[in-house]
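Students often ask why we bother encoding 3D structure as a string. The short answer is that it lets us treat folding as translation between two languages. Here is a chain of 307 residues written in the first language.
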Amino acid sequence: MGRIINAESHLRDLLSDGQDYYIGFGIDQITEIGKDHLDLNDLINGKTGSFTVSGKKGPLKENVKGKFVRKQPERKETIEKHIEYYSNYHGKIIEYDREFHIWEKEMTHRFELKLYRHMSPQQEMIIHFPLFNMVDDETHFLRAKAAMNICVILGGYYMIYDSKFEPALRITQHLGRKVLQSGIGTMAEKIDEIKERLIRGDYGSDNGGNSYRFAVLEDYNASDIADGIGGFNEYLRFEFEQDDIVILENLRSGNATYVFRLSLFDKDFVLDKQTARNHKSFLDRVVHHNVAEWERMIGRYLKRKAA
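And here it is in the second language, the structure alphabet:
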């Protein structure tokens, strides 16, 4: 799992405003950095109850040392300095005053986040940060982003948990539309919902290409359809059990279709467009250049059409 750039896109489709949640990870996929982190090992082994995350670089270091970034809106400040030195060339001391124009900066990312341990209802050890509350606020999303990236560095991934340490369930409404959940609802109901989205123009104005791509996928024997999560929260996830294929399709023109091996695909593992290609289940990325070429490429993976 790669670096998280925008925490908001990973939270919006999972949480409602005002909802409490935790960010954390299990101990099964601890990274080499995590294995070498003494404080983390003491926490896992029960030698300590919590610790403030620190490290030599990146989000681990920024958590306690902070990071200087340009103030917003960007502006420069003028600093005047007196310069004095001896010049061998001139054989005398050179003195003068000089103005320097530098960007004004401020300290950010110094959150001093702590990690704790907890046993989930399934008796899994979870390493987690303090309770978060979902609010539409820049500082909240920066803190969440820092927590997510620390989880990835130490644990190999991050997971969103509700206040009872259950994996966060998807909310039932998103952007004013019905949410499609894996294993819930009939295929006929889900297909009707997607058709209504196309009619409303949810996927953009190029309804010809959008509708055609959906019609092609509908023509194959999809075993389930769900809305994507994380970095693919604007995508639809088509599952084809007979072909052992998962397709993440945006339907919007100018995007791409992502193809995965279903037997290696973890539906609860949060991917984004940067990390998708490195996942063990990834097979292909098909760009929406023209529908005929797109259909030919998709046909390489989906062989069994609906009866």
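Translate back mentally: The chain has a mean pLDDT of 81. Keep this in mind for the problem set.
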